[in-house]
Amino acid sequence: MPPTSDLPLFQRCCAALVEHSRGAGLLLAALWLMLFNQLQVEWSINPQYSYGWLMPLLGFYLLYRRWEDRPKPESPNQSLYPIILQVSLATGLAFLLLPGRLVQEANPDWRLVSWWLAFCVLGLTLLALYRAGGSSWLRHFSFPFVFMLLAVPWPTVPEQAVIQNMMQSVTTVTVEALNWCGIFALQRGNLIELPGGVVGIDEACSGVRSFQSTLMAALFIGELSRLSWAKRLFLLVSGLVLAFLLNCLRAFSLAFFFTRSGSKSLEEWHDPAGYAILLISFGLLLLIAYKIAGPAPHPKSASPTNPPTEARFSGKWLAAMGLWLLFCEVGTRLWYLSHEQHQTSGRNWTLSWPQESETFQKREISEKVQTILRYNEGTQGLFRNPDGTVWNFFELVWYPGRISAQLTRSHSPEICLPAIGAAPVGEKSRESWTINSIPFTLDAYTFRQGPNDWYVFYVAWENSSSPRNDASTDNFYAYSAKFKAVWRGERNLGQKVLQLAASGYPDRQSAQFALKEYLTKSVIPE
After folding, report:
1. Do 424 and 195 form a contact (C-beta atoms < 8 A)?
2. What are phi and psi of 102, to 5 degrees?
3. 496 has which bridge partners?
């Protein structure tokens, strides 16, 4: 091999990366940082995933611990077919990063794309581990990287199923416990009706946040203690059971204090009680791990005579992969910037609320809702018509920005209304209307709360030159609209939500007819 100084500049750079053990490591760090940069938006706006900020630190700490007792690297299979398979997998996964970034930039709230990118990054990481040290390194180092996938938000459908079921379960257990203690309590959906008022079991009280945090803590403590897989499973199940029981205890305590001291005590103790159960559950997990750990295994140290693993990576391949990652990021940004220079804002609209009418009542939106949704403009009001029908509405506006789409879609009727004791009746329907030349896509629901049926209509509007609000039914439209936004180079658009709930009508169709008639008079194109 010629001396390094005799090589061309590009090959000298590649040789320097290889020689100093940094080429593959830098590429893996860049891959994971790219993924975390996309996930941090969800961590910032969704309290359920705020623990995601810890995941990179915890994951890399576990990786450091694994490095201290790494096994002697094995030579991977060097025959032709395994090499072709490895190259094909690495090339395919790297190629998929580009469409993933393009789609995610236009649809930052599409969690399936986050999982798409996460599996691409994990796959490339596992291939690099196998290439560096064979199957022994793959087994030894894979857990910290798999562990960091806990930072990826769950897909919306299973997440909401877990949230709703846990809120119902916590409410049921709390109501039973209160009645056993002689305190009259009645369950209405996720609400607890008490003699002094109503206490709601929301997402924070449901145990979902502590469920996810406990899942993270149990896996981290199990890895830190190097427990066997059977003991890790026992620790995980114990942690999830503890999280549920402690959240029931929290809900019971808050409801008990409410009956004694009123709503002021509820506001004072709500958040401290949540932090307390997290600390208690972590402490109990540590105690359980200590009890089941047994004698500590003798630590293994890395052999100083281990052959260098860097030589198994081609310097040219590392440089090409690094350039491809740079192209994915720079190319994605250039694609959208080039389109944004020529984009025109879509045709917007406003609603003319008859605030001078005696039947109209403007209401203040609660500080809690404002904190959760972080909208820029918001209006809430109530109409009481002479025929006995009632309309309750919200109109919320988000200015263009990276987090506007997530905030818009984070609380739809099927998420929020069950939390206040309203049960869905039948299936939702989707209607496409054109009102005063403005296209609307409207989701219609029926909810039952006590003896009353509420007909709820929901419009999520995007300020696009070709908005995603103008099509008919179904998932095909939803997915095709997401890809059309990529083709048009549209991202970070302004958003608007209009939600109206009507009661007093004989059926949903009658309420829809009245709504369409009202919107025809009130929608003002801009």
Report:
1. no
2. -65, -45
3. 397, 461
- C-alpha–C-alpha distance, residues 391 and 454, integer Å: 9
> 448 with 454: CB under 8 angstroms?
yes
Q: What angle do CA 193, 498, 406 make, to 5 degrees?
A: 85
Q: Where are the domains of the chain?
A: 14-153+308-340, 160-215+222-274+288-293, 349-525
Note the helical H segments in 190-314.
203-206, 208-224, 229-261, 263-293
Task: Calculate ∠ Cα 64-65-69, nearest 5°.
Answer: 110
Q: Which residues make beta-bridge pairs with 350? A: 524
pLDDT tens by residue, 410-420: 677 877 776 66
Say how far apart CA 298 and CA 277 lie, in whole Å.
34
Assign 259 to helix, strand or coil: helix
Q: What are phi and psi of 74, to 5 degrees?
A: -100, 155
| Both tokens assigned to 242 | 């503890």
Q: What's the burial of 153, exposed, middle or buried (CB within 10 Å: 0-12/13-18/19+)? A: buried
Q: Is 26 exposed, middle or buried (0-12, 13-18, 19+ CB in 10 A)?
A: middle
Q: Backbone phi, then psi, for 314, in 5-degree steps?
A: -75, 130
Taking the C-alpha atoms of residue 20 and residue 10, their distance in angstroms, rounded to an integer, is 16
**pLDDT reported for residue 97:** 94
**In whole angstroms, what separates CA 124 from the centre of its chain?**
23
Residues 6+ apart with CB under 8 A from 322: 26, 27, 30
Measured CA to CA in angstroms, residue 208 lies from 198, 204, 301 at distances of 21, 7, 40
| Amino acid of residue 177 | A
- 307 vs 112: CA distance, rounded Å: 40
pLDDT per position as a tens digit, 11-42: 444 444 444 446 677 888 889 999 999 898 88
Nearest Cα neighbor of 120 from 156, 139, 145, 143 is: 145
Beta partners for residue 186, in sequence order: 193
State the fold for domain 349-525.
Answer: Protein Transport Mog1p; Chain A (3.40.1000)
Burial of 17 (0-12, 13-18, 19+ CB in 10 A): buried
Percent of the chain with pLDDT over 70: 81
269 pLDDT exceeds 80?
A: no
- Closest to 40 measured CA to CA, from 25, 51, 27, 28: 51
Confidence class for position 220, pLDDT limits 50, 70, 90: very high
For the entire predicted model, the pTM comes to 0.79
pLDDT reported for residue 205: 44
* φ and ψ of 8, to 5 deg: -60, 165
- In angstroms, rounded to a whole number, what is the distance separating the alpha carbons of residues 143 and 229? 12
SS (H, E, C) 166-193: HHHHHHHHHHHHHHHCCCCCEEECCEEE
Rounded average pLDDT over 167-192: 82
CA angle 178, 184, 186 (to 5 degrees): 85
pLDDT in tens, 313-371: 666 777 788 889 999 999 999 999 888 777 666 567 888 866 555 577 778 887 777 77
